[in-house]
Every structure is written in structure tokens, then in C-alpha cells.
Queue: 2 jobs
Job 1
Amino acid sequence: MRTARLKRSTKETNVGVELNLDGTGTSEISTTIKFFDHMLATFAKHGFFDLVVKAEGDLSHHIIEDIGIVLGEAFKKALGTAESAERAAIVRFGSATVPMDESIARCAVDLGGISGVGRCYTVFKADFEKDLVEDISTENIPHFISTFATHASFTIHVWARGENEHHKIEAIFKALAIALDRATRLEERKKAKSR
Ligand SMILES: [Mn+2]
């Protein structure tokens, strides 16, 4: 079972994450930030991940950052250790381009080699005209993605443009989900090699 269940508590936040990489896209999300709930539910749906995220805390920046940490660790754990045959057999690379009305987002990921460590890097190319979208600061979006990439040990490239910030960010989360879904799949030919 490629799953993980993690909890993290600090003076600032309490975050719990349950992840199944081989799910159906169901989610139960409660972060106290409505727009972020919407993004994580979208992420689960389009990545076919089963995802539970329960988070609370003092400031939205801390909550989003700490979800990035725990979700990243959950991906790392669910993928398995370097010794695991399943970790060695993942597709590893994935990308997706997703439009949403006038907006478009691209995402490409590298989940790393067999060791599963060492290639964490984030490139985020998207400008936001507005500081706020719904109940979230737009600066938290690149921060979330780079925190997630660091703790999962992934390389993530994001590029997006558009007029509507809600659409742009939603397209980013969909593209990230689809790229990660593709990259986390098991490659039968790699599996055969490790037998
Ligand atoms: Mn929406």
C-alpha cells in the first residue's frame, strides 16, 4: 500500500495528513482557509490521490507552509524507501498543461532517482497582479510549492499566465496534480527489471 499518515504539531500549527497515492481522488480537507481547501480538494481529485488534510494554526502563512512540509513528507513516505522495489519502479518524470478559461498552467516534475533524495528544486514562473485571492495571499502559492518540493525531495517547475488569479492558481494545482499522478505511477518495464 503506497500510503502515509503523518501528524505535525508546533507552537504555530497542528497539521494531519493522510495520503493514498493509488486512490480515486476523494478528499476530506479542512485548513480554515477556504481557497486552500478548494485547491487541495482539486489537487486530490485530478491526481487521483485519496487525501485527508486537517490543519489549524495561528496565521494562514504558517498553516499553508506547514501543510507543504507534511504533504511533502507524506509523498516521500508513501513512495517508499530507497530499498523498496516499488520506489525504484515509479515513472519518475511527469508533466501536464492545463488551461482554465483565459489562464494556462504548465507543471513538470522529477521525483528523483532510486535513492529518492537530492534533487529538490523549485522554479516558479507566474506573476500575480493581486496580493489577495479570496482568503489567501498569492505569495503563499509559490511558497507552498517550494516547501512541498523540498520536503518531498522533488524537482518542480511551474509556469502560468492568465488574467484571473483564481483561475491561474487553480490551473497550477491541477497541472501539479496531473504531473504528480503521472510521475508516481508504477512503470511495468522497470518493475520487470527489478524482479
Ligand atoms: Mn475554482
Note: The domain at 3-194 is CATH 3.30.230.40 (Ribosomal Protein S5; domain 2).
Job 2
Amino acid sequence: MDTPPPAGNGAHNGKRGRARAMVKVSPYMVIPSRVGGFSLYLKQGDRLVLYAEKGELFTEEHKQRLGLLGVDHLYVRTEDYALFTRYLQDNILEILDDESIPVGERARVWSDATTSLAREAFDRSLPAPVDKRRFQRIHKLITDSLRFLSREDALKELARFIREGEELFQHGVGVMVLTVTTLCSFMKEDSDLIVAVGMGALLHDIGKLELPPEIFAKKFETLSRADKDLVKSHPALGVGVCSALPLPQETLQCILFHHEREDGLGYPSGSTGAMLPSYVRALALCNEYDNLTRGRTERRLTPFEALVRIKSMRSAFDMDMLRRLIEVLAKADLTS
Ligand SMILES: [Fe+2]
Ligand SMILES: [Fe+2]
């Protein structure tokens, strides 16, 4: 599948007088001894010139030349973007662990790699968006990302890339980052569990793909009883979508119980907080926070307003978990 580039990130090669859509990418993705299945271009004056041919082996010289030229961006053709993001996913661990790369650039590469994979997983036009192969890629990507996501300085940089957008996959990535960073702040050693929860957080709303999108565009309170029941079915539908995958129990619990509340007034089971694992309570909280702070400018809350709103709903969410989330956001300078 050809993944469309991020909006507002395009450029055009006017060299041959023919508009050719290009996507701006980080020059730090050039890793010596790796082969890119895509051509790379750089900007010279007003023109884009070929920097590395599709299938060419990247060398130390490639990397050094970029530094000498002071290049901020490279460019990939739109039609090669899916191959480019696949390359990022395959090499993400090496890029994220490279301390010579500024954290902001690593966040940019992480965002490109993760957003493209999430976009595929939520693509309604695909017959089986979350198939076994894609699930394995998600598992690998989150496993490879864990050390980076547990850094105190990563969230601030990531926020620049993941806060915008109303699509389900964008919400999934936002909730995954918040949930994983919150859990890493107090249970860093249990990496298998955090990876399983990260997958659940990314896919938590996958069941919405099974329902007409229009019902999610309206306010829940204004829906008919039948439509409310449909909305409330999305966690169970999500588990159904993933039933053929070898998902850990914790991932399935995250998908099924992400709308439960501390006071038992959530759905689908009406379980109280005491009956739910702490990672589900973390996800329920981060889901609410992301919903309140995402979306169209006129209706979304600032982080501060969202935290005040959640605090006022103290019977609905785990207040200890809220304190942890606030600490994580404060360290990343993201509470105002
Ligand atoms: Fe949901
Ligand atoms: Fe959600």
C-alpha cells in the first residue's frame, strides 16, 4: 500500500517542469551499511537533486556529506513513502539509540515510522488492516521504542509531532505514547507488560472501524438509544477484530475495558476501578485526556483545562494515576 505523506509536508521538484510530490524527511535516517528501497533528494537552491539512488548502499561518506552540507531535510517521492517508512521501522532501534542524533530528530523519525504503521492498521479500505504481519510489526516497533519512550526528554519532543489530527490512528498513537510514558514512570522494569499495553493503547478504538463513522461525529448524549448501544459495542468489536491474532491477554483487556470507570459507570462490563488492572486504569485516563486535548481548535481543551476537567470527575478516574500523568506531562513541560 502506498501510504500518503503527512499533510503540509510536501515539496515539488520543478527540475523537469513536472510537479512531483515529495515528502520532507529527516537526514538522520541515513544509516551507513543499510540499503534504502527509495531514492533520496536534497534541495539545492530552488531545485531538488538526487542524493542517493533507490537500492543504493548508504555509506559513512553519505552521512558525513549531509553534515558538511548542513542539510536539515531530505526528500522522498510520495510513491516511495511506504518503502521509506518500512525502512524506518526496520532500523528504528539503531536510530533511537544513537546519542549523536538530537532527541528532536529521533522523535521526528519515530513519529514518521509509527504514524505510518498506525495509519495502515486503521485503514478501512484494507481487507484486514490488523493482520498477523502488521501486528508483528507493531509489536516490534513498540518493543524497539520502549527505551526511547521512557526518557524524560522524549515526550516533549514527540508532542510536536503527535498532538494534531482527529483521525483514529492519530488518537491511537497519542494515547499509546501517553499510556506508555506514564507506565514507564513507575513500572519501567516490566517491559513485556508495557509493550502489551502499548499495543492495546494503539489499537484500543479499532472496533470503531466496524461501525458507521457518522455516529462518532455526534455528541454521545445526543444519540438515540440504539446508536448509543452501537457506540458502546466498539470495545467488544475491537476484540473481535483482533481475535485471530496472537495478542497478549493484557492487550485484549486494554481494548475491551478502556471505557470502564473507577465508579463502575463505564462500559461494557461496569467493572469498578478495584476490579481493573492498573494499566487499564492508566489507559482509560490517557484516552480521556487525549480526547479532551485533541480535535478541532474551537472545541479542544488546553492540557491544563483537560487536567482540571478530569480532576473534577474524580469518581471516574484513578486519581493516583492522574498524579503520575501530571508528573510526566510536567517534566515534559506540557501542562499549560
Ligand atoms: Fe473507545
Ligand atoms: Fe479512544
Note: DSSP finds 14 helices and five strands in the chain.
